[in-house]
């Protein structure tokens, strides 16, 4: 259906078996291109119509916004200024594949089919998209077909980022109920330069997995598929294409998971990585782990330590009573001074389990000591099982290195020595890249396979394999901190490597995330609807790892992707949920232009990655796919790159509104070049072998990192951004859920001590409650939102700067950001991944070859002796043969010499005649060359003339095209303006007619009441029947005319004496809906006395300035009402009235 008859005939002639929609699409594009080329050959002067192209090459990046799909952490911590976390909030959800998802997120998967399409040269840079020149490069992409409901009818649609508009085939409308078609005649130009005939347009409802969207679609007669959802639908509905997972995602109002406190506020965490892991060999050259050595003192900072000891010598004196200067030896007071509210504490498996199955109580006490220090300063702790290149017990193999192809490379930290199983692969790094250390890769293979280390006892580990021991180490930690609310959670493994597994997508799905799932099952007891694995095979596939009895469902689990992400700025993985446990946080690292492939391989930085924002956008979308929250647990660079690398990456964090911790806190560096080290403080000064803990703060890092940021936000966080240059801050929040205010009504923004003179302004649906000045001179802004809409917070050096921030915000909200070239980004992602795959595969092959060569050498030793014997025998036979052979060779040489002499004489005779002939040929060649030169000059002149003519003609065609495009754009703009004006006129007329009707209704009711008053001696209540009639009509009219006109009606009734209970029986208005009515003195309302409002609904009403001392509010609903500057008297006339959230700022309470 919908395919040209000529195309059908061609398919039949060629007997093509095409069954899938994407195959039809590919073939049709190729056929249309052929037909177009044929038409160009037939009509040489053929002039293309200057229409807008049907296929565009770009897809704007969706704006990343924060969300209401919450990630909570369990805790029973009481409500204090320290905002701890609580357990998962119960919310409406739907179940998919035995996993509970928030209903805001909608996912659609599609068939994982792929086709290759050639891309024409010049189509992306504004040149002629219909040029006939073919490019040698090919772009690979997969058409995305999704199942949808189109006007409640099941259909399949093609998601096309290259199509500017949504298009539906005419014949599909026979199966889809629809509104009346809107006539429209226009031709669109497709990517292959064929013409699409548009005959109508029609509004469509597109339902994707229950999420309803709308779009205006063009109706065509010659589309190669039924329905194309183009960029207009993609952009307007915040659709993101997860590539290469091959599925689409509609972000409902930008929702995704985030960490919330017990008041359901969005929490932003900013912190630093603090190192306690062990790196040095031997172990006694690393920092001590005995907590007694840190009790009120700090161990000496010895020159062999890579990082200074972490200390808090004044612990126990209280949060703000501890010295926080740079030379105080109080790390956590210093961390609080910087404005950080979380640390990532890097731990070592080798310190936790120094011998197999024996977990170190001393190291656990040291970790507990550090957690207590952090708790006193109200700083959260992420316990990070840290490893770098698997283990410090992987030693570079200098004996076999072949620089620069293979260089000796050490591991750094992580696994204990007994857990290092390299299978004799050498510790050589392929081209010096640490991620391609052959021994490290093989060690990870054994870890993922849960290999059993030789000569290692199981001890207290839950199983004999490497993973079993590792899970036991985490369980050892979790048992200690299961009820500790200062611990935010556990990071299962730092920068896991893929080992020798080539396909990264398969590796993550089959090895990495199943390992994470086992850890979570062991610690939380979550079973994921699977039976327990048997004890003899705890790491089985279709079963749950044994529950180790901790049952910790309070804490977060931080999961990292493979370290390949550090090279690519995206993770080659299938980002889908892997556990039914809800408190999971995706924890990638971002090192754009620091460790990305352009830096490692010394490539041009402009080639890849495309931007600093790109790393956070991909990380955010990976976390959405995993149904998790997100916190970047590492970023950083040397101080010489603060302006070029650090500021841009932190700006990108703010744009994405992602929490993060910077690497590292402090480090030792006593040699030349330490001025560019990564730490936040200068290195200590060395005196012999001892140095002070650290030097002063680095001022530029204070300027960049000690910044204004939100701590807890009520509502949906739309944006926040801190400008490092101007020290200004802006935050936009949307809050429309007033139930949030029942838990807590305070949004908190932190201002560091260095900005304590900043000006603060709050606009929109919120008020500035107070500013708390902490003893360390930092400030907390306390904001009370009303949850009636959007509110903003501005922090700047002066009010003029705040005005500029506000204006800039208005401009940004009304402008469209420049779109990125989506196809080019996908192509560069693929090329970067393929480059990594090439290096990784070569490294694996090198390791395999090395091991194979080593084993062959052992087998060859046994053959060497036999070979030597055979060689000696062969040499003896050859000596016997050499004597006779030598004689025969001499005879041959004599005969050969005679023949050569005869041949030489004959050759000289022939050369004499050849030289004569060559001279004649040279003269002939010179004559021919002159003729060719003359002919070439003639051709060159003719060609230049033709090129000039062609250039002039091309310029004329380009001018014509631009004029037509501008005219079309102007016509479209004028038409849009006319439609807007017509719409505004209709809306104005409707509003005028509505106001006129309401005024007429009010006047009619007043006349009716006046008639009744005249007929019944000025009283509406003297006759019960008349009272009932007057009450009914009045309540009906009040319900219809709204608060403003109701005020005028009440004034009339009061003036007529029908509301005052001191003169006669007042009119009964109980049950009347007078919400938001303004009876304040500022509203031209005369002072009313003895008014009867018993049983009336007056929520959010305003009585400002009135004397209410004799008003009757018995049983009235006055929630959120404003009693500012009123005189009130508490009496029985106020009995049973409701005043929830009312503003009772009373001017005078009368006795």
Overview of this structure, please?
By secondary structure, the chain is of the alpha/beta class. Among the domains are: 145-237, Cathepsin D, subunit A, domain 1 (Beta Barrel); 384-395 and 447-705, TIM Barrel, CATH 3.20.20; 709-797, Immunoglobulin-like (Sandwich), CATH 2.60.40; 1069-1150. It has 17 helices and 40 strands.
List keywords for this structure.
Cathepsin D, subunit A, domain 1, Cellulase, coiled coil, 40 strands, hydrolase, six-stranded mixed β-barrel, 18% strand, 1151 residues, TIM Barrel, Immunoglobulin-like, alpha/beta, eight-stranded parallel β-barrel, globular
Under CATH at level 1, the class of the domain at 384-395 and 447-705 stands as Alpha Beta
State the strand order across the main sheet: 18-20-21-24-25-26-27-28
**Derived structural class:** alpha/beta
Main beta sheet, described?
8 strands, parallel, barrel
Q: What is the residue-averaged pLDDT? A: 81
Euclidean distance between termini CA atoms: 86 Å
Strand proportion, as a percent range, falls in 15-25%
Q: What would the principal axes of the Cα set say about the shape?
A: globular
- CATH-level-2 architecture of the domain at 384-395 and 447-705: Alpha-Beta Barrel
Our Rg estimate from Cα atoms comes to 40 Å
**Continuous helix count:** 17
CATH fold field value of the domain at 384-395 and 447-705: TIM Barrel
Helicity range: 25-40%
Low-confidence segments, given as residue ranges, are: 41-141, 813-819, 857-863
Total strand segments: 40
Organism: Rotaria sordida
Protein name: Cellulase
Domain Retropepsins: 146-241
GO molecular function, one term: hydrolase activity, hydrolyzing O-glycosyl compounds
């Amino acid at each position: 259906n919908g395919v040209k008859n000529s195309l059908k005939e061609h398919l039949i002639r060629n007997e093509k078996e095409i069954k899938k929609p994407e195959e039809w699409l590919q073939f049709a594009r190729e056929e249309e291109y052929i037909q177009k080329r044929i038409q160009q050959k037939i009509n040489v002067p053929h002039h293309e119509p200057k229409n807008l192209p049907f296929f565009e090459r770009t897809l704007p990046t969706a704006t990343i916004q924060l969300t209401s799909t919450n990630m909570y952490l369990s805790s029973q911590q009481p409500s204090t200024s320290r905002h701890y976390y609580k357990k998962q909030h119960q919310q409406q959800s739907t179940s998919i594949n035995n996993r509970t998802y928030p209903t805001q997120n909608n996912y659609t998967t599609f068939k994982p089919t792929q086709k290759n399409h050639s891309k024409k040269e010049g189509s992306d840079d504004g040149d002629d998209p219909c040029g006939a020149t073919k490019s040698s490069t090919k772009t690979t992409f997969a058409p995305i077909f999704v199942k949808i409901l189109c006007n409640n009818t099941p259909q399949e649609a093609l998601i096309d980022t290259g199509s500017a508009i949504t298009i539906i085939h005419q014949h599909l409308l026979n199966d889809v109920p629809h509104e009346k078609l809107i006539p429209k005649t226009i031709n669109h130009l497709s990517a292959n330069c064929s013409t699409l005939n548009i005959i109508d347009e029609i509004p469509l409802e597109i339902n994707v997995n229950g999420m309803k969207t709308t779009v205006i679609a063009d109706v065509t007669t010659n589309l190669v598929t039924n329905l194309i959802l183009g960029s207009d639908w993609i952009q307007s509905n915040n659709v993101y294409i997860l590539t290469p997972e091959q599925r689409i995602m509609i972000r409902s109002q930008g929702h995704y998971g985030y960490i919330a406190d017990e008041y359901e506020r969005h929490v932003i965490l900013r912190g630093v990585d603090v190192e306690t892991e062990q790196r040095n060999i031997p172990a006694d050259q690393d920092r001590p782990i005995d907590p007694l050595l840190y009790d009120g003192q700090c161990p000496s900072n010895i020159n062999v330590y890579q990082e200074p000891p972490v200390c808090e010598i004044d612990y126990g004196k209280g949060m703000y009573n501890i010295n926080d200067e740079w030379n105080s030896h109080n790390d956590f007071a210093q961390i609080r001074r910087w404005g950080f509210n979380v640390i990532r504490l890097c731990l070592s498996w080798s310190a936790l389990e120094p011998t197999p199955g024996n977990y170190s109580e001393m190291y656990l006490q040291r970790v507990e000591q550090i957690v207590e220090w952090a708790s006193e300063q109200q700083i959260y702790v992420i316990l990070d099982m840290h490893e770098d290149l698997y283990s410090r017990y992987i030693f570079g193999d200098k004996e076999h290195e072949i620089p620069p192809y293979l260089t000796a490379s050490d591991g750094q930290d992580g696994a204990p020595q007994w857990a290092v199983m390299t299978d004799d692969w050498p510790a050589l790094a392929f081209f010096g890249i640490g991620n391609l250390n052959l021994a490290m890769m093989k060690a990870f293979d054994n870890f993922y396979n849960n290999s059993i280390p030789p000569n290692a006892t199981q001890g207290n580990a839950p199983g004999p394999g490497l993973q079993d021991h590792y899970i036991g180490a985490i369980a050892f930690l979790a048992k200690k901190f299961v009820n500790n609310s200062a611990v935010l959670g556990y990071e299962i493994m730092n920068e896991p490597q893929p080992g020798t597994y080539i396909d990264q997508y398969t590796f993550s799905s089959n090895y990495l995330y199943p390992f994470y799932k086992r850890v979570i099952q062991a610690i939380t007891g979550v079973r994921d609807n699977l039976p327990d694995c048997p004890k003899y095979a705890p790491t089985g596939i279709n079963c749950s790892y044994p529950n180790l009895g901790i049952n910790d469902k309070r804490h977060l689990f931080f999961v990292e992707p493979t370290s390949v992400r550090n090279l690519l700025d995206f993770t080659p993985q299938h980002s889908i949920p892997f556990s039914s446990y809800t408190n999971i946080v995706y924890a990638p690292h971002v090192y754009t232009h620091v460790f990305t492939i352009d830096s490692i391989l010394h490539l041009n930085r402009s080639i890849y990655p495309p931007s600093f924002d790109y790393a956070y956008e991909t990380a955010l979308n990976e976390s959405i796919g995993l149904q998790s929250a997100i916190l970047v647990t590492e970023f950083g660079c040397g101080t010489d790159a603060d302006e070029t690398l650090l500021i841009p990456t932190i700006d990108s964090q703010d744009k994405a509104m992602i929490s993060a911790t910077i690497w590292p806190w402090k480090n030792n560096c006593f040699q030349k070049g330490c001025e560019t080290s990564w730490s936040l403080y200068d290195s200590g000064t060395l005196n012999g072998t001892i140095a002070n803990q650290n030097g002063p703060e680095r001022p530029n890092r204070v300027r960049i990192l000690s910044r204004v940021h939100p701590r807890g936000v009520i509502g949906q966080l739309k944006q926040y951004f801190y400008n490092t240059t101007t020290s200004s801050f802006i935050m936009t929040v949307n809050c429309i859920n007033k139930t949030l205010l029942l838990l807590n009504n305070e949004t908190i923004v932190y201002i560091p001590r260095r900005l304590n003179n900043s000006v603060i302004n709050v606009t929109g649906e919120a008020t500035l409650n107070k500013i708390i000045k902490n003893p360390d001179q930092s400030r907390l802004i306390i904001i009370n939102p009303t949850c009636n809409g959007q509110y903003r917070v501005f922090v700047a050096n002066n009010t003029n700067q705040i005005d500029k921030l506000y204006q800039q915000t208005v401009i940004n909200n009304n402008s469209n950001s420049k779109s990125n070239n989506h196809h080019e980004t996908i192509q560069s992602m693929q090329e970067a991944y393929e480059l990594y795959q090439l290096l990784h595969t070569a490294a694996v092959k090198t390791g395999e070859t090395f091991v194979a060569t080593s084993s062959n050498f052992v087998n060859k030793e046994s053959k060497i002796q036999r070979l030597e014997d055979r060689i000696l025998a062969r040499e003896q036979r050859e000596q016997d043969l050499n004597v006779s052979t030598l004689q025969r060779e001499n005879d041959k040489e004599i005969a050969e010499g005679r023949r050569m002499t005869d041949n030489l004489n004959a050759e000289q005779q022939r050369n004499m005649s050849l030289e004569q002939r060559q001279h004649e040929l040279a003269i002939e060649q010179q004559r021919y060359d002159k003729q060719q030169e003359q002919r070439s000059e003639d051709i060159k002149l003719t060609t230049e003339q033709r090129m000039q003519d062609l250039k002039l003609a091309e310029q004329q065609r380009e001018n014509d095209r631009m004029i037509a495009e501008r005219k079309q754009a102007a016509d479209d703009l004028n038409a849009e303006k006319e439609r807007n004006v017509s719409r505004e006129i209709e809306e104005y007329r409707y509003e005028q007619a509505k106001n006129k009707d309401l005024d007429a209704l009010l006047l009619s009711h007043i006349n009716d009441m006046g008639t009744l008053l005249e007929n019944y001696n000025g009283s509406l209540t003297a006759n019960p029947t008349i009272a009932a009639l007057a009450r009914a009509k009045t309540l009906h009219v009040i319900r219809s005319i709204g608060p403003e006109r109701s005020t005028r009606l009440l004034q009339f009734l009061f003036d007529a004496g029908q509301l005052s209970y001191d003169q006669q029986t007042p009119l009964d208005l109980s049950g009347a809906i007078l919400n938001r009515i303004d009876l304040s003195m500022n509203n031209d309302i005369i002072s009313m006395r003895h008014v009867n409002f018993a049983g009336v609904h007056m929520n959010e009403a305003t009585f400002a300035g009135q004397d209410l001392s004799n008003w009757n509010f018995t049983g009235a609903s006055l929630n959120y009402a404003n009693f500012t500057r009123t005189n009130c008297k508490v009496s029985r006339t106020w009995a049973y009235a409701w005043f929830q959230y009312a503003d009772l700022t009373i001017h005078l309470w009368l006795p």
